[in-house]
Design a protein that fits this description.
By secondary structure, the chain is of the alpha+beta class. Helix content is 45%, strand content 23%. The protein is built from 10 helices and 8 strands. Strands 1, 2, 3, 4, 5, 6, 7 and 8 form an 8-stranded antiparallel sheet that branches. Strand 3 and strand 4 form a beta hairpin.
Length: 259
């Protein structure tokens, strides 16, 4: 299994305040496992509190917000490409990731804890074992029978989902706020206020970030920069290039070079 894209990080925050710790979307799968404490997670309008020994899969390009819950918050974060997932379970893993559920089976918790121990050794000698445990986690997430705890939805979830669905279906064109508002039968001011309140970012900024992350995923698949710009609704490549560098922090050429 090629793990070129795998990124693993253990982050510990003491006395976690009620503030935003992460707020982004990216073209990778993300598995978040709570080692200690609790945290509020918002995945595009689906909000839940995740507790100790609970993990969740976040799909690529899904905007998510992690907010402190007034406790110590220690977490393992795994970022990986779909090609890091064994081909035999890739479809099943993708299906499970789409369900917006949190998992805390005994087998998974033990695997996560083992992976954390190996990661903390920070010794290349353990890399093969670390890789094997990571693969085991992926298989468990894809195949293990368990009773998932679904992420709860707030009162505005359906409207937020409708707004997000419209944006995702129209990433290849110009997305005007007036059109988004019409699609959900609300005024522009109303949807902007609702979106900002729920997602902690403006709808305009969300659209820009989704387009740039989509462009990044296309570049990683081998699509040429000019074609990626067109696929995101940009007719002027210079405008696309400037925004891409601002949001991604790298140029399209840099992203292609790192494939």
């Amino acid at each position: 299994m090629d793990q070129e894209y795998l990124r693993a990080e253990i982050v510990r925050t003491e006395n976690c305040a009620n503030r935003i710790y992460d707020q982004h979307c990216h073209p990778y799968y993300e598995v978040l496992f709570v080692i200690k404490g609790s945290v509020q997670l918002n995945i595009e309008g689906n909000v839940s509190v995740l507790y100790e020994n609970t993990g969740v899969i976040i799909e690529p390009l899904k905007y998510h917000i992690v907010t402190g819950n007034q406790t110590d918050y220690h977490r393992l974060i795994l970022l990986f490409d779909e090609y890091d997932i064994p081909v035999e379970i890739r479809g099943l893993f993708s299906d499970n990731a789409r369900v917006n559920s949190a998992y805390s089976s005994k087998t998974l918790v033990e695997a996560f804890r083992k992976y954390i121990q190996l990661l903390e050794k920070n010794d290349d000698l353990y890399l093969p074992l670390q890789s094997a445990v990571f693969t085991g986690i992926l298989y468990s997430l894809a195949l293990e029978e368990r009773a998932p705890v679904r992420l709860s939805e707030n009162k505005n979830s359906n409207r937020i989902k409708a707004i997000i669905d419209y944006v995702e279906k129209n990433l290849s064109g110009e997305i005007r706020l007036s059109d988004v508002a019409s699609s959900v039968y609300m005024s522009e001011s109303a949807i902007c206020h609702l979106f900002k309140e729920t997602m902690q970012t403006s709808l305009k900024q969300y659209i820009i970030e989704k387009k740039m992350m989509y462009a990044r995923s296309l570049l990683q698949q081998g699509i040429a920069p000019g074609s990626a710009a067109i696929a995101c609704g940009y007719k002027n490549y210079a405008s696309f290039y400037k925004m891409f560098c601002k949001i991604v922090g790298k140029s399209p050429a840099d992203v292609i070079a790192q494939r």
